[in-house]
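Researcher: Next sequence.
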Amino acid sequence: MEPQPTSSFRQVRHEQPVRAVPEVRTEADLAAFDASLRRLVPDDVWDYVVEPAFEGIPVVIRYEEGRLVRAVTQGNGEIGDDVTDGIRACGWALHALADAPALMELRGMVCLTRDAFQEVNHQAEESGCGPFSDAADACRAALRAQMSAKSSRPSFDILVDTCCRVKGRTFATHAEMAGCFQRWGLKTAPWQRLCMDIPMAVAAIEELAAIRHTFPFAVRGAVIRMSRCEPADRVERAAGSSQAARIWVYPPVCAETRLVGVAARVGRTGVLMPVAELDPVPLADVTVHQAAMPEGVARDLLIGDRVRVLYAGDSLPVVSAVLTDRRDGTEQPFSPPTVCPACGEPVVRREGETVLRCGNLACPARRIGRLLQFVSVNGLDLPFITGEVARTLVEGGVVEDPLDLFALTPGRLAQLRLGSAPTEGESGARRDAWDLLDALDAARRLPLHRWLYAVGIPEVGVKDADPIASLHPSFSALAASPVITGLIRLDALTARASEWAETLADPIREAERQIRFNRLCGEIGVLGDELVAAGGAARIPGTALPPRYASAIRIEAARAVAAFFASDYGQRFAARLAALRIDPKRREPAQETGRLAHLIFVLTGTFSVPRETYSAKIMAAGGWVQDAVTPQTRYLVAGNGTDATKTRKARALGVEVIDEAELLALLLGNAIPVALHPPAPEPPRRRPAKKKEKSADGFRQDELF
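Model: Next structure:
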């Protein structure tokens, strides 16, 4: 089922509701479907057509005068995501359809080929988020990436199956409709069977099941629909949309095997992802050796367990159940790795996380992912370096570190044939090589925040890079940044003061204790005021001690930057960048009104434009944008679908909750920002009991790694 519309795209309301085709799983369901049709159109006869139901995203595409003007996902049936730009970005349907009606709306499916699915999964693993469980989820990720990365490489296709509306044209049968689609240059299902009755349809469904793994796209089931259009239209008018068809859903293939081990894969961010190693077991047309391990299943998992594995075509094999009643006492618990399987460096578990990470930025397993981040649209924006090219560069030993790109020569780049079609020959490869060299030369002059994100420092995302870069004149200034070290020390002193203030009073040494506490508060005030003067923090009004400060730079990001420049790899990277005579500078701030200076915003829910648009406008007006509501937050901007829990938390903390219209009023200067007010005094609290420290070997089985 298509998920609710996301905030990634502009949302559009369908002119007519788009309903999902109901699913069936038994012959009895099909018989009931046939009986319902006979009740709706008792005076007519018809036959059925059976086609593959592909995995992907249902979409409605509108053509005017033969040209694509809009493509909207099915969404919740009423509202969908506008993906027109994403479809156009990959070069699909840019040409006009020959002899097409003046106006038509078609339903289809945005699909990934099997090869593209594997490519998207490779990129997902390298990014540290893990592979996608099925082709539909991977297709959504590819579509979002297509719109954000401005890539010209098509990563998906659209298979059209039926008409929602067409002007000046009628069709007698579904086969005639599909033939017209093909003549107009559209793609349709490559397999079709005409069936006179339900028994023939069942036979066609079984025939399709036997060959479904031979198609270029993942097949989730079979569509059985009325072949003749006129009675089908009558059914739609009488019973509603999609009532003239059903989808027979194929069950996933299941088998039992033995767990022989647990391996670890290292993603771009260094996260170690557990993978079940299995005794080889045949499923469908493949032999499965490894499978994903859902957290809920892995809690009771032991090496040697008999497990049930599910595999549904292009989906990744998944360990779905542990057969604990089949244990014989020889099973053994597995231990998490203590070192990275790729580089041998010790792994760490960050505070508040259950995953293990490799902290070595030079880890070979992270090279492809780091290179892709380096050349991404938010980094140096080098679209020639696709996932396939990045893998070739790294695995071929051409690029071990992203800065190796600046040492490539035109001849070496021409051999790689970046983006060239085979028919373009040597001249096309050389042209692409020179284009990449020009792009690399332009990248030398990109602003600091782009480079700071491109480096791939853990915890430093797009939203973190901008406020850090705005407080530093150049990349070289980050190594000994007084703002970064000041924020880290301020956080440590504030935590120490808070702990001290919560300590039970000792009557014998109360005077001495108060003197030390006052000195600590004074040190916090001096350091905080220095950060305020440097633009790195803002003081929160109030008389309570210790004084409180807010910063647009997350403390986790500040610590990560400091750790990067203190590491051997960070020092080598900075030295090499200096040797290349590259020292990115911060961008000159635009003329700002400063009307939102030092006000912290949190955006949640969906808006009429992407959140990034509002984030940029807020920062241009001097404000800051963060992800979570804290006592320092001034405004929670609540869009459609905002979680009520977040709203209640904001109001409990005294944070102003506004909607999109009120935000626009603030940005346009039509409303006056609410003045900061001191937080309500907190009642005295007793010092909480200390949490038990987790021992180095204190591994909990339910945390996987």
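Model: The domain at 11-249 is CATH 3.30.470.30 (D-amino Acid Aminotransferase; Chain A, domain 1). Confidence is low (pLDDT under 50) at residues 1-7, 149-154, 420-425, 676-705.
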